[in-house]
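As a warm-up, study this chain.
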Amino acid sequence: MTSPFDDNFAEMGVPALMDELGEPVQADYLQVGQADVKITMILGGVQDDEQREGGRRSRVLRTATMSRDSSSPYGGVANPSLEGRVKIGVEEWAVRRIVQQSESLTTVEIVRTRPIEVSRPGYRASS
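Now compare it with the structure written out below.
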């Protein structure tokens, strides 16, 4: 059972957050064995993870907040999975961890890898 605060926040607070804060983007939430879900998310800033993967790729992290109510005008995912993926434009991000979950909203940390440019003196010099 939810509290009156949770009910009021779901009705009035979530739409205000989705409309006014962060960077609302259209995204697809992808989860194995389930249909893709079109949702609006509030994205946090992009952070580079200093850990290198194999020397040629780095990880990029950001948070994404989404509604848990699939019937809302913003779409929603009731129970995001650590096996889920978020597709924003052409970039696909993996759900790394669930940061916070309330009755109305879920914030997840998403991650993707990107290539690292390698450079050294004379690397691109013309012959």
